[in-house]
Amino acid sequence: xxxxxxxxxxxxxxxxxxxxRRQAVAQEQKPFAAVLSCIDSRVPPELIFDVGLGDLFVxxxxxxxxxxxxxxxxxxxxxxxxxxxxxxxGHQRCGAIKAAYASLHDGETLPGNLPEVVTxxxxxxxxxxxxxGSDPIDAMIRxxxxxxxxxxxxxxxxxxxxxxxxxxxxxAYYSLDTGAVxxxxxxxx
Length: 189
Hints:
By secondary structure, the chain is of the alpha/beta class. Helix content is 44%, strand content 16%. The protein has helices at 2-8, 19-24, 45-48, 68-81, 95-106, 114-131, 136-153, 159-163, and strands spanning 33-38, 56-61, 85-91, 168-174, 181-185.
């Protein structure tokens, strides 16, 4: 979060991004966090958190959609390297969520394999549709963050690590306007 504060204030340090760091992590990596974020080009986790090579395991999907391959990818760090933190990072004005909302709300059919993303995001849509509200897209973004984080927390392999407090799974929301990350849930105590 200190790195995000530097980013949001326009004063990033861009650490661990030089040839010396590249050499230091060439043979082995030990990232301090895994981040599940959106594919959106405006949301690169390494920049947002002002970190560099070897600092993060990053998995990116449209709207933080989760399936078994994504779950396995996110589990990799905690289960093989003892990575103590997973961040599910959603963001303001997410195009994947907006498209999924339109598809589910208006019955629009999306091209290619995009209906698979819509299916993965449907529980967040259903939660928001039942609750109502003035900004259903932003509500769906936040709901998806929480659903993905809760799904990871309940993973049979991650849940024991969370229970022992060896792993924190944090839901977070990135503001495109300010550059700041807001922790929604799961902050370590």
